Amino acid sequence: MDDLFRVLPLLSHKVSPRPPPSPNYPSSSSLASTTTTTMFRTAVKQSRVTRSAFSSAHFSSTASKNSALKERLSQLIPAEIESVKAIRAEHGKKSFGPVLVDQLYGGMRGLPALIWDGSVLDPEEGIRFRGKTIPECQAELPKAPGGSEPLPEALFWLLVTGEVPTAEQVKELSKDWAARAAIPSFVEELIDRCPPTLHPMSQFSLAVTALNHDSAFAKAYANGISKKEYWGPVFEDCMDLIAKLPTIAGRIYQNVYGQGKLPAIDPSKDYAHNLSTLLGFGDNHAFVELMRLYIVIHSDHEGGNVSAHTGKLVGSALSDPFLSFAAALNGLAGPLHGLANQEVLVWLTKMQQKIGKDASDEAVKQYVWDTLKSGQVVPGYGHAVLRKTDPRYTAQREFALKHLPDDPMFKLVGQIYNIVPGVLLEAGKAKNPWPNVDAHSGVLLTYYGLNQMQFYTVLFGISRAFGVAAQLIWDRALGAPLERPKSYSSAAIKKIFADKN
Ligand SMILES: CC(C)(COP(=O)(O)OP(=O)(O)OC[C@H]1O[C@@H](n2cnc3c(N)ncnc32)[C@H](O)[C@@H]1OP(=O)(O)O)[C@@H](O)C(=O)NCCC(=O)NCCS
Predict the structure, then answer these.
(1) Ligand 1 centroid, distance to 384 Cα (angstroms)
(2) Based on the structure, what is the number of domains in the chain?
(3) Which residues of the chain have a pLDDT value below 70?
C-alpha cells in the first residue's frame, strides 16, 4: 500500500484538456503435416483431457504440472487471499481522493482504479518490480553462467511470487518453457499464410489469439471448474503463452525477413538465448545478454498502461490468457505505446536522410521543432506517469556504454537527449520532456543487425507477457471481479453540476 500512496500526488496534477511466406518451412517439431493436423483435430474432439495421443511438440501444457513455481504459488495464495480480505475490511470504505472531471476527459491520468501487484511506477524514480529497482534486479536476480544481465525467468518468478528465486528454480523454469515452446501446426500454417506485408504485430496478435484453441482454462471452464480453482489452469495457460511467444515471433521474423529454416529450441538454454537463436542471433553473446536485459526492463510497468490494463480488463471477463494477451498486444501496437520503439527508429532515419549523419546540434534542434510544428509527437519522449528520465532508458544507455560506446547511432541518441528536452520544455506542452524506454531500444537492436524496425514491438510484446501473465494468475487466484467502471455522457456531467448549483 505504501507504494500506492506514493502515486497519490498525481491526483493534484492538472489534467489537460517480401517474399511470400515459404510453404516449405518444416514445423517446429519437423513433423507438421496435414496428417498431423487432422490427427490433432480428431483428438481434440475425442478427448478434452488426454493429449498424449499426439506428439508433445504439437501441444501446450506438455511440461510438468507440478512445477516449483506452481507449488510455491499454491503456498502463497491462501495467505494473500486473507491479506486482501483484511485490507478490504480495514480500508474498504476509505476514500482514495477526489475524482476530477478533467480526469474523465483526460485519459484517467492519476486516477486510482486498479490493483496490480507485480510492479509500481513512481513518477520520479521509475519502475520497481515487487519493490526492486532495475539496478537491484540486475544485482540480485540469478544470471546465466558467464552472463551479467538478469534472466527473464528470474524476473517472472519475482513478479509472480515477490521472491528472488534460486538458480535451480530458474533453471527449472527455462526447461519448462523450452518444453512448452512448440505451437500447434495450424498456428504455424496461420502465420505462414499471412502476407509479409501484414505488420508483424498483427501476425503476432492473430497467432496468440489462435492459441486459445488449446486453452486449459477455457476447457476447464466449459467443464464447470469451481471459481476457487481458476488460477491453476490460468497458470498453465500463462506458462504456455510465455513459452510459445518466441516460437511465434521467430516464425514471423523468418517469414517476413529471413530465408532460412527456423532453428530448434535448445532445452538446455535459457529463454532469451532460445529467442535469440530463433531470430538468428543465438551465437552472439552480447545480443543474448541484450535480450535478457530487454525482456526484464520491458516486462511490466504497473497496471494502468494500455497493454497491461487491456490484458487485465479482458481477463476479467474470464477470457483465457491467450485472448486476454492478444488484446493487450493490439494495444501495444499503437504508436503512443509500444509501437513508439519502431517510430523512434523511423524518425531517426528520416532525420539522418534530411540533415545528414553528422548533423550539428542546431540542425537537430531545427528538425525537432519541425516535427512539433507539423503536429507530430517526438517519439520516445514524454510519459503519462514518469516525470524524469526513464530508468529503462538509463539501463539501456549503460548497456550501450559497455558494448557499443562508439556506435554512431548511439551517439545520435545521446545528442538528441541533450536537445529534445529543452525543445519540449520551450514548446511548453509536454508534462515530461525526458526520454522513455522506446528512445533507446531500437538503436541497440539495430547495432546487432536486427534492423527491421517493424519487428521491434514484437519483442516488446514478448516481454510484456511476463507482467500481464503474472497479474492474470493473481487476479484469478484472488477472485478479481469483472471490470465495469462507470461512464458518463458530457450531458450528464453538465446536468450533475447544474443540479448542484
Ligand atoms: C507518452 C505520451 C503518449 C504521454 O501522453 P500524455 O500523458 O498525454 O502526455 P502529456 O500530458 O505530457 O501531454 C500534454 C501535451 O503534450 C504533448 N506531448 C507529450 N509528449 C510529447 C512528445 N514527445 N512530443 C510532442 N508532444 C508531446 C501531448 O501530445 C499533449 O498535447 P495536446 O495537449 O495537444 O494533446 C506522450 O508523451 C507521447 O505522445 N510521447 C511520444 C510517444 C511515445 O514515446 N510513446 C511511448 C511512451 S512509453
Answers:
(1) 7
(2) 2
(3) 1-66, 259
